[in-house]
UniProtKB/TrEMBL annotation:
<dbReference type="Pfam" id="PF00704">
    <property type="entry name" value="Glyco_hydro_18"/>
</dbReference>
<dbReference type="InterPro" id="IPR052750">
    <property type="entry name" value="GH18_Chitinase"/>
</dbReference>
<feature type="domain" description="GH18">
    <location>
        <begin position="31"/>
        <end position="316"/>
    </location>
</feature>
<dbReference type="InterPro" id="IPR017853">
    <property type="entry name" value="GH"/>
</dbReference>
<keyword id="KW-0732">Signal</keyword>
<feature type="signal peptide">
    <location>
        <begin position="1"/>
        <end position="27"/>
    </location>
</feature>
<dbReference type="InterPro" id="IPR001223">
    <property type="entry name" value="Glyco_hydro18_cat"/>
</dbReference>
<dbReference type="GO" id="GO:0005975">
    <property type="term" value="P:carbohydrate metabolic process"/>
</dbReference>
<protein>
    <submittedName>
        <fullName>Chitinase</fullName>
    </submittedName>
</protein>
Length: 316
């Protein structure tokens, strides 16, 4: 169940209307800062119900995948013009916005199937144009992308091309992490972004699936501190600047590792940490499972939407 670029298009309301989306696509809501993941595979799948209950304004929608070639589809099978487009419109009609996420752990990845950076950038552009996007998230965690130097470089060069075509673009790259920060592959990705000039705006780590327990608030803070230190070293930034380019995506309740749990109290502490360092992104996997008990829920006793409410209160 592990889930696992941020683009801003300088487009007008007329452009939004032309592609069949309301002007809310151009609204001021930041889809990067506080946008819990939402996926259409089960659990609580209504974004507007979550918005009404929590005040959250944005969602990270999972996942855009390959349809078997270099063509983007939701979950690798759903058209960009189908039910997901309707869901995005509903979110925008309610005053919110979205950041589609490319990748995740499962499924066939565009980074692997597209054979060149220009082709991959073209796949990203199809999604950008389909929804008049401000933002996209690249969730690079599957070994086909994350542990493959050729694919890493292809993704980063595609980011560079996409940023050139969309000058107001913000790019988020999400990766796994150790408790001390990015592993060897994560460090390589960050260093290559600098070398290629990919200009990634936000680096976000997934601080879970570490071991079989421990203080998940402390583990999360240590992991993000490690990310900050790597960004500081690579780009020559100050601590403050490096934190402002850092983010995190936790997991609510029981994670994929037996004995490892992120409690509501842990997540509240993590938000305080994020606020104190002005992190650029604070989110979790996923609003679908933000409910009490097992099955499609978090596996812990919690109030419905407890984690989504915590995210909704994050202002950077």
């Amino acid at each position: 169940m592990r889930r696992l670029l941020t683009l801003a298009v300088a487009a007008s309301a007329a452009m939004a209307t032309a592609i069949g989306l309301a002007p809310q696509a151009m609204a001021a809501t930041d889809p990067v800062l506080a946008s819990p993941y939402l996926y259409q595979w089960g659990g609580q799948t209504s974004p507007t119900a979550a918005m009404s209950a929590t005040g959250v304004k944005a969602f990270t929608l999972a996942f855009v995948l390959s349809d078997g070639g270099c063509n983007p589809k939701w979950d690798g099978s759903r058209s960009l013009t189908g039910s997901d487009k309707t869901m995005i419109q509903n979110i925008r009609n309610a005053g919110g916005d979205v950041i589609p996420s490319f990748g995740g752990w499962s499924g066939t990845k565009l980074g692997s199937k597209c054979t060149s950076a220009s082709a991959l950038a073209g796949a990203y552009q199809k999604v950008i144009d389909a929804y008049g996007l401000k933002a996209i998230d690249l969730d690079i965690e599957n070994t086909d992308e994350f542990e493959n130097a050729t694919v890493q470089d292809r993704i980063l060069n595609a980011v560079k091309l996409t940023k050139q075509k969309n000058p107001n673009l913000r790019v988020v790259i999400t990766i796994g992490t150790e408790t001390t920060g990015p592993n060897t592959y994560g460090k390589r990705l960050i260093n290559q972004a600098k070398a290629i000039g990919a200009n990634v705006d936000v680096w976000s780590v997934m601080p879970f699936d570490f071991s079989s327990g421990g203080d998940m608030a402390a583990h999360t803070k240590s992991a993000v501190d490690g990310l900050k230190n790597q960004l500081k070293t690579t780009f020559g930034w100050s601590d403050d600047t490096a934190y402002r380019h850092s983010g995190l995506s936790s997991m609510n309740g029981k994670t994929d590792n037996a004995g490892e749990t992120v409690t509501v109290a842990n997540f509240t502490s993590i938000r305080s940490y994020a606020t104190s360092h002005h992190l650029a992104r604070f989110t979790f996997w996923a609003t679908n499972r933000d409910c009490s008990g097992g099955g499609e829920c978090s596996g812990i006793s919690q109030a419905k939407y407890a984690f989504t409410k915590i995210v909704a209160g994050y202002t950077g």
